[in-house]
Amino acid sequence: MSLSDPDVVRREYASENGLRARASVYQGLAGPDARDVAFAAVAEVAPSRVLEVGCGWGEFAARVRDELRAAVIAIDQSARMVEMALERGVDARVGDVQSLAFDDESFDCAVANWMLYHVPDIDRGLAELARVLSSGGRLVAATNGRRHLEELWFLVGRDKSSEARHFFSEDGEELLRRHFAHVSRRDLESPLTFADAAAVRGYVSSSIAHKHLAERVPELSEPLVATRRTTVFVAEKAA
Q: Is the dihedral of CA 76, 67, 105, 230 positive or negative?
């Protein structure tokens, strides 16, 4: 089962339950929060027009709107996610990053947080993001590394070495350089504690492609500390 399989992604995000379960794990995260790093990267350019793709329930888009006073449009393939973003007062629409319904150079900044690994044609999606950005515009894109939470996945015998992936920490920069003039990265590591086997099992069962591994979680004699490995890429279009 692939993270970029459109049918898998469509089923997963038809409801907010899985996303909410995964997000709840990161409450009280020790160390730097990649969401704050991504927000700071957006704030650096003081944008007036921002596009967020794969907006989920609109939390990030609402923060950009409220704290930066920017005009924000958010899109997501899931009608349920768009519905939840609209409830926050976000200008949210159903849409696909591979075919953006906006004119060239419509935005100063675009955001794609933890979603580009779901895009079947990643080059087409990145080309579309570059197209709708103004000259010198910025894309902020957060993703995970292949070793993200490796201590947890080791417990259930998941072997990532043979998994086909795109747009993770390891290959995101190369992909971005095909479409943007300047690319930099901000790598982050944070310890994440799972209190017991039930917490680990809950996280695994909420995963998109590996729910079936939840039954392999062993009993634990102490909390499990796993390492969150994330990267915030900052890509800029030629001026």
A: negative
Contact 31, 190 (CB under 8 A): yes
Could you give the 3-state DSSP secondary structure of residue 62? helix
**Residues 237, 239: Cα–Cα separation, whole Å:** 6
Q: Taking the model in full, what pTM does it have?
A: 0.87
Interhelix angle 197-205/17-25, rounded to 10 degrees, is 140
Task: Dig out the tokens for 134 from the structure.
Answer: 């103004």
**Which 3 state secondary structure label does DSSP give 27?**
coil
Residue, of 22 and 83, whose pLDDT is higher: 83
What is the residue-wise DSSP string for 161-223?
GG----SSTTTHHHHHHTT-SEEEEEEEEEEEEE-SHHHHHHHHHTSSS-GGGGGGPPP-SSP
Question: Which distant-in-sequence residues (6+ apart) come within 8 Å of 23 by Cβ?
Answer: none
Instruction: Look at the chain and count its residues.
Output: 239
The answer to whether the beta carbons of residues 188 and 140 sit under 8 Å apart is: no
Residue 1: band (very low, low, confident or very high) from pLDDT cuts 50, 70, 90: very low
Closest CA to 237 of 193, 178, 157: 178
**pLDDT per residue as tens digits for the range 141-169:** 999 998 999 999 999 988 776 666 689 99
Are the C-beta atoms of 114 and 108 separated by less than 8 Å?
A: no
Q: For residue 16, what pLDDT is reported?
A: 55
